[in-house]
């Protein structure tokens, strides 16, 4: 029985929960036929959620040696004599480059291969997608031998996710009140163009995410400049250049004057981030300009769809993320918009994007998560709850 060690061997914590068998090696043959057999490669790779062929091939590339993998006989070989310590050190490098999340360093990731042959580590712990070093030879091998599809449980998607809230909307909404004003009519017309929940749902059995030519251009553009500061909280952490959040931000900013709500939703869907609250933080800042009061009606249907869960409930986390992005837009990019905060909140409230209780809490709670405390205080004064929700 192989010894069990931490997946990150640099972590000296007996309560660290991510574990794997210690890599074992066995030297066979002699002379030109000498080779190193790894008898527990399958068990190690299973702990890392990576095919054993990837790890074996990585060893070969790093050592400049031929390798052979036979899944039927469970036999993985690296030509030449290589001691266990050397291969364990290389395994640590493989884990760092192809397993650990580039953001939180958690090993709970899956490899995602896009149709443009980019490879991401999709982290289940923090929700980030971080790129790998595409210059490494293993990247080419992964593209030619993509991860096999894995079955995942599919939750039922309620019809309310299509932009309606299943009849559980605010009693102040235009639709529930029977309003037939032009604004409400436009909302209904725009909502009809957005995909239904079934059409919008990303196939959870598919490892590939569809990214367009525009996304590729955006990634190239991002590679030419410094990483963006789009941290989930205080904007202090740089975003990976290949992150889908960076891609959607650059794409929106490049096409802001021509895109529709439907275009934005499809782009987020292609990148697999249409359900992520962080997407709303980025859209709240990048989708609008200092003309946000005039621009909002064009996109409120999109925002309503994205804050509404599959059960037809408006997510508080998504509301906070959206307002975080708008806080950055107003407090950092366009401070002259602070007096317009009540109008912005009213539009979002009347469109059922924000709930009354959320607005009241937001208008009275000073937070420095997205902007400094002084700017947050200015919002509080401008967003007097009675003014907003009347």
TrEMBL record:
Biased composition (Basic residues): 146-155
Region: Disordered, residue numbers: 145-181
GO biological process: formation of cytoplasmic translation initiation complex
Ranges of residues in domain W2: 234-390
InterPro entries linked: ARM-type_fold, IF2/IF5, Transl_init_fac_IF2/IF5_dom, Transl_init_fac_IF2/IF5_N, Transl_init_fac_IF2/IF5_Zn-bd, W2_domain
Gene Ontology, cellular component aspect: cytosol
Keyword terms, alphabetized: GTP-binding, Initiation factor, Nucleotide-binding, Protein biosynthesis
GO MF assignments: eukaryotic initiation factor eIF2 binding; GDP-dissociation inhibitor activity; GTP binding; translation initiation factor activity
Protein name (record): W2 domain-containing protein
Organism in which the protein naturally occurs: Hydnum rufescens UP504
